[in-house]
Design brief:
Elements: H1 11-21, H2 25-39, H3 49-56, H4 60-69, H5 83-99, H6 110-114, H7 119-132, H8 155-159
GO cellular component, one term: actin cytoskeleton
Protein name: Transgelin
Family: Belongs to the calponin family.
Length: 188
């Protein structure tokens, strides 16, 4: 577990401090509040790193959250506190999130949450999932995602552009470099 590891030092400590400096308590509070609303659980929504980690660490709330999106998407939620069972819950959550359309660059790795390595990425993943919530009839967080706006053009409209010469092809108007002669001419 993370509590039995030695404290980081040197470059590792600097890198961890840089990662931790990006953490935003307000965003974490919004995400935890949203999770409490969707799941109906009473959880600590203070938003500090400790409360976020302790609330989500075992993965049961995350599995319950994605099961609100689609019933039975996580078939078995492990209630054991053994490390690998908790990490399996987190991994099942990540598989479900991928199916719901959260991009992989907005997801986190299991160890980011379990070992508290990068809680900022956990918050980003949950915010991205929160934007998808309105597509499943649940209250969402953050800006509403855009929808398709398909346009159909007639053949006449498409052919109208063929008579226009783009400026990318150049122009014979305007200033040219003809007649420019700087300095002395080249003598052979």
């Amino acid at each position: 577990m993370a509590s039995t590891r030695a404290t980081k030092s040197g470059f590792a400590a600097e890198a961890q401090m840089k990662i931790n400096s990006k953490y935003n308590d307000q965003h974490a509070h919004e995400v935890l509040d949203w999770i409490a609303t969707v799941t109906g659980d009473s959880i600590d929504t203070s938003g500090d790193m400790d409360s976020l980690h302790e609330t989500l660490k075992d993965g049961t709330i995350l599995c319950k959250l994605v099961n609100q999106f689609q019933a039975g998407v996580v078939k078995k939620v492990n209630t054991s506190t053994m490390a690998f069972k908790c990490m399996e819950n987190i991994n099942n959550f990540l598989k479900a999130v991928t199916d719901f359309g959260v991009p992989t660059q907005e997801q986190f790795q299991t160890v980011d949450l379990w070992e508290r390595q990068n809680l900022t990425s956990v918050v980003i993943c949950l915010q991205s999932l929160g934007r998808k919530a309105s597509n499943y009839g649940l209250p969402g967080i953050g800006p509403k995602e855009s929808t398709k706006n398909i346009r159909n053009f007639t053949d006449e409209q498409l052919k109208a552009s063929e008579g226009v010469i783009s400026l990318q092809y150049g122009s014979n108007k305007g200033a040219t470099q003809s007649g420019i002669n700087f300095g002395n001419t080249r003598h052979m």
